[in-house]
Design a protein that fits this description.
With 216 residues, the chain is of the alpha/beta class. The chain folds into 2 domains: 112 residues, 3-Layer(aba) Sandwich (Rossmann fold); 66 residues, no CATH class. 29% of the residues lie in helices and 19% in strands. It contains 7 helices and 7 strands. A 4-stranded parallel sheet has the order 3-2-4-5, with helices on both faces. A 3-stranded antiparallel sheet has the order 1-6-7. It starts with a strand and ends in a 31-residue tail after the last helix. Bound molecules: iron/sulfur cluster (SF4) (2 copies). One iron/sulfur cluster (SF4) binds next to α6.
Length: 216
């Protein structure tokens, strides 16, 4: 799930500037789970904007704001309503998806933070940095790219203390976690397998995938 948090409202108001007629675009997927772009947050933002001199002329709540076709369906009504600006209440992907398809300025209500796992409702942990070359099979399922503050792929840096990371002692050292996990799996020999430092080719941006391509 993509994890986002709300931007300070002052920053959003600054971006909106003189625009009076505003449209809101939420997202029924990740942004709703993060409580930043669901129907409740849309109603709250509408109330705030209208109490501060704006008029919310249209709202849209696509199933997924990063889905071009789902978003496209909503944009006609937003245009017809005469919106001067759109507030995207999804992750940056969703905001970009709206912006790409309409010639009205789109402003993000949120900061997009990371790809994370849901610990409990409202609690998220960063779990994968989408490096494009997954090594979890060698590390007991613990991601060294994400869980190690230095993204070290072949062992600890030597700075850990009592199993905690030297960069942020609130976090467990990723490589101690990897050791313990491999030990519990009876796979400590995997520590002998050198994981090459990651090149950048696998995650040179922007990446594209077309699963419709016929593979030979
Ligand atoms: S190694 Fe880590 S960052 Fe890379 S794909 Fe696997 S989980 Fe994601
Ligand atoms: S102490 Fe562990 S988690 Fe922290 S930077 Fe060093 S190897 Fe990575």
């Amino acid at each position: 799930m993509i994890i986002s948090e709300k931007k300070p409202i002052e920053e959003l108001m600054l971006m909106l500037g003189d625009a009076k007629k505003i449209a809101l675009v939420g997202c029924a997927s990740c942004a709703t789970a993060c409580s930043v772009g669901g129907e409740k947050e849309m109603a709250e933002l509408k109330e705030y904007l209208e109490a501060n001199g704006k008029e919310v002329v249209a709202t849209a709540y696509p199933g997924e704001c990063c889905h071009k076709l789902l978003v496209k369906k909503e944009l006609k009504a937003i245009k017809a309503a005469g919106a001067e600006a759109i507030v995207g209440m999804s992750c940056g992907d969703g905001v970009g998806t709206v912006a790409e398809q309409i010639d009205i300025p789109v402003y993000p209500a949120n900061n997009t933070l990371f790809l994370g796992q849901v610990e409990r409702v409202g609690m998220f942990n960063e779990a994968c940095r989408m490096c494009g070359d997954c090594v979890l099979g060698y590390t007991g399922g613990v991601c060294p790219m994400t869980k190690c503050a230095k993204s070290l792929t072949s062992g600890p840096c030597g700075g850990q203390k009592n199993g905690k990371c030297e960069v942020n002692p609130e976090n467990d050292c990723a490589w101690i976690m990897i050791y313990k996990k491999l030990e519990s799996l009876g796979q400590l020999e995997k520590l002998d397998m050198l994981i090459e430092p990651k090149g950048h080719a696998a995650y040179s941006y922007p990446r594209k995938i077309n699963t419709r391509e016929v593979k030979k």
